[in-house]
Design a protein that fits this description.
Layout: H1 12-23, H2 31-39, H3 43-65, H4 75-82, H5 84-114, H6 123-143, H7 145-170, H8 187-200, H9 217-246, H10 256-301, H11 320-336, H12 339-363, H13 367-370, H14 385-399, H15 403-423
Helix pairs in contact: 1-7, 1-9, 1-10, 2-8, 2-9, 3-8, 3-9, 3-12, 3-14, 4-5, 4-12, 5-6, 5-10, 5-11, 5-12, 5-15, 6-7, 6-10, 6-11, 7-9, 7-10, 9-10, 10-11, 12-14, 12-15
């Protein structure tokens, strides 16, 4: 009897929603102030500029993603371009960043709810909120990819709607003279702001992870990558610009979107933003569980983790063991607070994944490697220019990481190497 396989039910807009859901989280509700504190009225242009830089990297993900139709996103290209070990390390760092980020986000949800019900922000009530939310999201993930995509689509619309309403209303009341950069750009602070924003734009790398559940991945994954960056760049830039135009000193507040919304829409505006923040964090956790579990599944499918993690539910056609495993790790990290110590690793982990995709773009174009994989259904324009620029941008950000972040990243890679040696000892790769 043939083992059950994942169900291919995702379309291009489902994949786009998965990517947008991961990029736009609770951070957008505070980012305009944090960036303005560094670069003043240059903040909206910084949002736009980093969006363009992210597009270069996303085009690399789009090209390599168009060669594969299997689950795992950047794991397949890294494996094909640089070998089994590098593919495992990319998958390990990708999963690591998902669970550490997810644990942080679910704690943020408990704090957001605690604003209205202080009792749920600490102790047993906080634990019950975390367990309840993650339990519900786990159940939804287990039931099927179509049900999961419906929820992701709902959360994506739910988090975009408050920001769009805020921007469309606020644009009529904003003082646009505040948005025009005043004076020369502060060069030192520009680098710090760029580093902050590149992580705020991060998350789109998960767009291609569920390719094994997409109906036409080689065409839809490239579309989704480009669409994600264009959508989030437009929303985040416009949101920052309107907040800057509405508030006399956007850098002086810790809740710029909520304050600006209340200014033009009163109590309704504040409630809308608060609701959007809760939906945003919940949806982000849904995506973390989806992408994290599929990463574990992909590694097991490749023969780099025990085969039990590649088991597919016979009825729901979901990787149920990988889902349960990822959910349990998320709960442990969230309840113990261990994610705080993993935050530094998460930052470097994302950059490792970016570099692997950009490098694989160039490597898989070479004849000796191109013959081993399917032809690209999408090719980034301008020859090697886009991948080289993307590598330069990512490398410069990595160079700007703190020594703690770099050491933590190296330690995580070393742990991954040990896990790889244990998991693959005497085991041949699945493909």
């Amino acid at each position: 009897m043939q083992a059950p396989a994942l169900r291919r039910a995702l379309g291009r807009w489902d994949l786009t929603a998965i990517g947008v859901n991961q990029v736009i989280g609770a951070a957008i509700f505070i980012l305009p102030a944090q960036v303005a504190q560094l670069v003043g009225s240059w903040a909206p242009l910084m949002f736009l500029g980093v969006g363009l830089a992210s597009l270069f990297v996303a085009l690399c993900f789009a090209e390599v993603g168009s060669r594969f139709d299997s689950t795992g996103g950047p794991i397949g290209p890294a494996r094909a371009a640089f070998g089994r070990f590098v593919g495992f390390e990319v998958g390990w760092m990708l999963w690591f960043s998902r669970v550490s980020s997810g644990a942080s986000v679910i704690n943020g949800l408990a704090l957001a709810l605690g604003y209205y019900w202080p009792v749920v922000s600490t102790g047993a009530p906080r634990a019950l909120v975390i367990l309840g939310v993650l339990g519900g999201l786990t159940w939804a993930n287990l039931r099927g990819i179509k049900q999961t995509s419906w929820l992701v689509n709902f959360f994506t619309i739910g988090k975009l709607l408050p920001l769009i309403v805020f921007a469309l209303v606020g644009v009529w009341f904003a003082d646009w003279s505040r948005v025009v950069p005043a004076g020369p750009a502060p060069l030192t602070e520009l680098g710090q702001a760029a580093l902050l924003l590149i992580f705020a734009y991060g998350g789109y790398e998960v767009t291609g992870i569920p390719a094994g559940e997409a109906s036409n991945p080689k065409k839809d994954v490239p579309f989704a990558f480009v669409a994600v960056i264009l959508i989030v760049s437009a929303v985040m830039t416009l949101t920052a610009a309107v907040a800057t135009g509405l508030l006399p000193d956007v850098g002086a507040t810790t809740t710029p979107i909520a304050d600006a919304s209340a200014l033009v829409m009163g109590a309704f505006g504040g409630l809308l933003v608060s609701l959007g923040s809760v939906i945003s964090t919940t949806g982000n956790n849904m995506g973390q569980l989806l992408s994290g579990s599929r990463t574990v599944y992909a590694l097991a499918e490749n023969g780099d983790l025990p085969p039990v993690f590649a088991k597919v539910h016979p009825e729901f056609r979901t990787p149920y063991v990988a889902i349960w495993f990822t959910s349990i790790v998320l709960v442990v990290l969230a309840l113990t607070g261990s994610f705080v110590f993993l935050a530094a690793v998460s930052a470097v982990a994302r950059l490792v994944v970016y570099l692997s995709a950009c490098g694989a773009t160039l490597r898989l174009r070479q004849p000796d490697r191109a013959s081993r994989v399917a032809p690209a259904q999408f090719t980034a324009p301008l020859g090697p220019v886009i991948p080289v620029l993307a590598i330069a941008i990512t490398s410069s950000i990595l160079a700007g990481a703190t020594s703690q972040q770099l050491l933590s990243g190296v330690a995580a890679l070393a742990v991954g190497a040990v896990l790889f040696a244990i998991a693959t000892r005497g085991v041949q790769p699945a493909r």
